[in-house]
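Let's sit down with a protein and look at its sequence and fold side by side. Please make up or recall a protein chain and show it to me in full. Label the sequence line and the structure token line clearly, so we can match residues to local backbone shapes. Go ahead whenever you are ready, and we will take it from there.
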Amino acid sequence: MIAFNANVRDTGSPPIPEAQGWARRYDGSRGPLIDLSQAVPGYPPHPELLKHLSEAAGTEAAAKYGDIYGDEGLRTALALEISTLYRGRVTPDQMAITSGCNQAFVLVMMALAKAGDNVLLPAPWYFNHQMTLQMLGVEARALPASAERGFIPDPQEAERLIDAGTRALVLVTPNNPTGAIYPPETIRAFADLCRKKGIWLVVDETYRDFLAQGYGVPHALFAGGEWQENVLSLYSFSKSYCVPGHRVGAIAGGRAILDEIGKVIDCVQICAPRAAQTALAWAIPSLNQWRAGNTAEITRRAAAFRGVMAECPGWRLLSIGAYFAYVAHPFDGVSVFEVAERLASARGVLGLPGPWFGPGQESHLRLAFANVSVDSIKEIPARLAGFTP
């Protein structure tokens, strides 16, 4: 048999389709499926954004190659927004627009690490990050983030895990899968640690616009110029603007590292659709109120989810924030995969098993409460009542 790349072949199958297969067996007897599996916006894009997308798609420019680093209009708009939010200074030439935030992570890791190196990921981790590193032959080294610490990783523990082969440390805040929001002092401590150790700090801020305290960010890494030396910030437009199908993400970083990332972009042509870039350049300064309203709605859904979990005996809400809740099921000795599969197929509640997010998660489920309305969230206690896997 002709051989395949072992790094790819040994990577697990994409989890979301497997979980959706469980839901397809649900007969609807308890009401519509409550899909808490995937982080997708539970409301439509703004009508004016759809109009701009449509108009931009019909232009000749949208059908042509653009700048390697993304269209200047979008880079300028995003740099201004980041500078305002962080009270720092980020310029358009410190931005790269990518085909989604997952692809931004791939580009960054290709530029930072080679096969045989290692990168620290807080565990539980976002499974696409681990899968990317495995495909590249880079070790995903688990940095424990326990429920007892609110799923906040410890910089001192990270320092013990860093060795000569460590190239980067990744933070995701607000976190996927746990929803944990890292305190500003923790993020600063990691930045200082990475600078001391001569490695990169990569901060994935996909869900930054959904912080419970309102639109904004929980740290000030960009306040000084030293961030350019070893900090990269990743962002996704998918959730904030409800356009996951358009695959637009961004990297903020110093010019030197962006030059290296640009080589990868130019080689593999992982570029965002130009029509979406044009529309989003308009949307950033124009849809602030709409985005703030969406954040308020997500905050209401988080509060509703927190309330209903108190009505579910035995189920424990371990962490919640932004888009996600991390929950422990009450069935000792029962595989969480069996729990999740039966919950979807028999009760019509679809979540993701914790082991998909790394080692030590055998009793946990990730539930993306932001996907569904408050009314749907309020149905959860009835769905869980009397449930056994």
Q: What stands out?
A: The mean pLDDT is 93. Residues 117 and 165 are 5 Å apart (CA to CA).
